[in-house]
Specification:
The chain has about 350 residues and is of the alpha/beta class. It is about 45% helix and about 15% strand. It contains 13 helices and 9 strands. The termini are far apart.
């Protein structure tokens, strides 16, 4: 019997993939399957996966044309056979007893979802991210809905750790989920959002369908932070991705939140996403549009219904300090002030460096 399925989408990670695979092979829980989905990786990642698979019958490798992380996760999900399933990122790794801790907790309380804690690893230093204030098991649907609010936006966490809300409430990598819950409810990763927020939306759906949720204050994952400039890489389709994210969230709200319970967390998502596309679209020097064209386009976007609803309806106390500053300028529909504020922040950051 396969107790645990681990699905790993893989793209261009030949430097890291071996460490992850070996951390899975050496798990104290042996009855597992490891599904490696080579998403058309241009480096030697696929070859590395094949070599590991040769010596371990628990490993299945899927080679496919590049289709993005969401599609790769779905391909792995389609063939999974374990009682529980977890999705790992290919540049991370697991403590050797992680799967056993998650599985034993799941079986003990018959949990649909078991969540553990995460080490954030950067330059050889590990920092433990604590998600909630204490261990708990919940069968309370109303409380689980509050966990969904935190999935939308972390400052809605109903019982955060004293250190403050952690990152990654929506990450699929520290969550053991009953495979039957996913398949019985037709849950998949949304490929329309191009790998951005697909994991957070997935988490909302599994929470919405869970009857028993368990959280253990045990580290079950190492999340590698790689310093690069990807957050400032020009994305020509940033506005389209935002619209896809908003549509996906609205579909969820139409199904599970017609009482308005998720509206304000959703508005915080809209503000967050506007702030996040500033450096990769509106303020990117690689955007082929002229500066004034970008400013006019920003003004037009700010007048769109989805942004206007968020600007007027968001609970600004839940936003970060910088998001709150940009939100005030969004209210004034002032692209130039937004540009100046963002550039000022970047200048200050450069001085600190």
């Amino acid at each position: 019997m396969i107790k645990f399925s681990i699905v790993v989408p893989i793209y261009n990670v030949e430097k890291y993939i071996g460490e992850l695979i070996e951390s899975l092979q050496k798990q104290t829980l042996h009855e597992i399957e490891i599904i490696l989905v080579d998403d058309g990786s241009p480096d030697k990642s696929g070859e590395i996966c094949d070599k590991y698979a040769e010596g371990d019958e628990r490993i299945t490798v899927i080679h496919k044309k590049n289709g993005g992380v969401s599609a790769a996760r779905n391909d792995g999900l389609a063939i999974a056979k374990g009682e529980y399933i977890m999705f790992c990122d290919s540049d991370d790794w697991l403590p050797l007893d992680a799967l056993q801790k998650l599985y034993e907790e799941g079986k003990k309380v018959d949990a649909d979802i078991v969540v553990g804690e995460v080490y954030q690893s950067e330059n050889g230093k590990n920092r433990l991210a604590r998600f909630y204030s204490n261990n708990f098991i919940s069968k309370d649907h109303a409380f689980i809905r509050k966990l969904i609010q935190a999935d939308f936006y972390k400052t809605y966490c109903p019982m955060p750790h004293p250190a403050g809300p952690a990152f990654g409430y929506g990450g699929p990598w520290n969550k053991a989920v009953k495979l039957s819950l996913i398949k019985d409810n037709g849950i998949k990763f949304d490929t329309r959002v191009k790998g951005i927020f697909d994991d957070i939306i997935y988490t909302a759906y599994i929470l919405a369908n869970a009857k028993i949720f368990s959280y253990i204050q045990e580290p079950v994952y190492y999340y590698r932070i790689i310093s690069n400039s990807i957050t400032h890489t020009y994305k020509a389709n940033a506005l389209e991705i935002n619209n896809a994210i908003f549509n996906s969230w609205k579909e969820f709200i139409d199904k599970y939140g017609k009482d308005g319970f998720f509206d304000k967390p959703y508005y915080a998502v809209v503000i967050r996403r506007f702030v996040e596309i500033l450096p990769v679209y509106f303020l990117s020097d690689k955007n082929p549009k002229s500066f004034w064209e970008r400013m006019r386009e920003m003004k037009k976007v700010l007048n769109e219904q989805e942004y206007q609803k968020a600007i007027k309806g968001v609970d600004s106390s839940k936003l970060t300090t910088f998001q709150k500053t940009i939100w005030r300028l969004m209210k004034c529909n002032s692209p130039l002030a937004i540009w100046a504020t963002f550039k000022g922040k970047e200048f200050i950051k450069s001085l600190k460096k």
